[in-house]
Amino acid sequence: MQHYLGYIFDLDGTVYLGEELIDGALETIQYLQSENKKLLFLTNKTIDSRENYVDKLAKLGIRVGLENLLNPALVTIHYLQEHHPGAKVYIIGEEILRQELVSNGIQLANSPEETDVVVVSWDRDFHYEHLDFAYQSIKRGAAVIATHPDRTCPMPGGDIPDVAGMIGAIEGITGQKISIIMGKPSILTATTALNILQLNADQCLMVGDRLETDIRMGRDAGMSTGLVLTGITGQDDVDTTAYKPSYIMHSIYDILKASNTD
Amino acid sequence: MQHYLGYIFDLDGTVYLGEELIDGALETIQYLQSENKKLLFLTNKTIDSRENYVDKLAKLGIRVGLENLLNPALVTIHYLQEHHPGAKVYIIGEEILRQELVSNGIQLANSPEETDVVVVSWDRDFHYEHLDFAYQSIKRGAAVIATHPDRTCPMPGGDIPDVAGMIGAIEGITGQKISIIMGKPSILTATTALNILQLNADQCLMVGDRLETDIRMGRDAGMSTGLVLTGITGQDDVDTTAYKPSYIMHSIYDILKASNTD
After folding, report:
1. Which of A192, B75, B81, B157 is least crowded, fewest Cβ atoms below 10 Å from its Cβ?
2. HSE-up of A81 (CA within 13 Å, CB side)?
């Protein structure tokens, strides 16, 4: 396995499974930190803050800073700052997302008339009133973007509807697809990641357990990619996918093991 | 213009505009009643009961019975009775729809586990909890149908999101299109109409102001069709449509005027 300057890791299924670390994940990350590699951890979840992920990793023994975490909220903030500076934004999403955007200087709209951009995210309190506000805004010319594309989210009691329900509701009313969607596998997440790491794509390895999101995004961006088999994907899935990874690893631990055999 | 045994009328834009009768509508309908024609009035709205429409028409001077009104609720009841007899149903929709279904013997489901059919309709109190209940039901094998396909509904203050928002939310989560949709222009509405009238399609004239719903449905069912120009459609629209009507009328009044010149 080649050496890289930057390592980008998916979290659930790659670094941990639920509340348990993957065997060797801690040692691997500590090794990469000791080698002064640049690390970034990615999630598509918008109902936890980046601070929560730093805390969760710390509890598992992995000490990283806020700057090592990238979530759809941060991609959205970067996107709005670049493409809609000063815009007034209407957010369909939970309080934690709203706080993350507002604390980064994003201004909230108070009416459809003053809304420049509708940000569609996951909201477990989504209501018809949100749909109507979004529709009235879009009808008056507001742009519309979504934070991530996930259909459902796995939860301890079984999977539940994710942001795709909110996206579908709006697309159903407008008859228009929402074409700008952050989060994996969007290239917008990859470019934000490279921007944060200050690296080029060919200097990075993207590691994750999902072909359609982690590996696809890494490939699309021109990164090397490593599929781990500790999550949702099995060896058989690799044979039939259009998103072939550069490396197939039993787990993240293979990165450390490969370095020892150099 | 040919004489027909049955006349099927759209309401808003055809018989009345908002709260005002179209000129000549009353005389035309009274004439058809005096000739013992079979009449049926169609609406795609699910937030008013058929009784409300009978009352509204009565206030405008048009005296018809409940049996002359067909709405998506009634089409849905017919469909459930034929295709899912005894089914337990989860309804996304407003109280007036729920009452109409229950009073016609449809049984309500209390949990996703016991849900046989999810009925998706327009609900101005639609909430994430409804989406989750529907998703958990569909995941466990429930069928899913929708009462009508409308994107938006015109209201005095401007149009607002209709059932397409609820349909889109569910399609977004399941990744599957809902293929069984009642209401105009569904053939299911046309066959229910013919069933109620006890007539064949070629004995009926379908009259409405919308090419994509009224005229399309009439054509698909094999009825003669009459487009009125008192609603949303202008003469220019007819030149470019795939849904050419059999007749183009200035208004519903042309039916009476044509009969006088025979």
Report:
1. B157
2. 12
Q: Which two tokens stand for residue A200?
A: 């080029």
Token pair, residue B130, equals: 């409804």
Residue type, B101: L
Q: Which residue of B has its CA nearest to A150?
A: B173
| Whether B42 contacts B190, CB under 8 Å | no
Residue-wise pLDDT for B34-56, tens only, equals 999 999 999 999 999 999 999 99
- Between the alpha carbon of residue B120 and those of residues A13, A169, B17, B98, B181, the distances in Å are 35, 13, 28, 11, 9
Extract the tokens encoding B249. Answer: 């009328």
Burial (CB count <10 Å: 0-12, 13-18, 19+), residue A2: exposed
Phi and psi torsions of B107, nearest 5°: -95, 140
ipTM of the complex: 0.93
Q: Which strands sit side by side in the sheet containing A107-108, from one edge to the other?
A: A107-108, A88-92, A117-120, A143-146
Residue recorded with tokens 């973007």: A145
CA atoms within 13 A on the CB side of A23: 7
Q: How far is CA A229 from CA A19, A43, A60, A250, B257, in A?
A: 18, 18, 20, 5, 77
pLDDT at B262 exceeding the cut of 70: no
Measured distance CA(B27)–CA(B257) in Å, rounded: 10
Compare all CA atoms of chain A with the CA of B171 and give the residue at the minimum distance: A168
Kindly list the residues from chain A whose CB atom is less than 8 angstroms away from the CB atom of residue B128: 123-127, 161, 165
- Listed in sequence order, the residues at least 6 apart from B179 whose beta carbon sits closer than 8 Å to its beta carbon are none
Q: How far is B153 from chain A (nearest CA, A)?
A: 10
The tokens describing B257, both together, are 């005027």
CB B87 within 8 A of CB B81: no
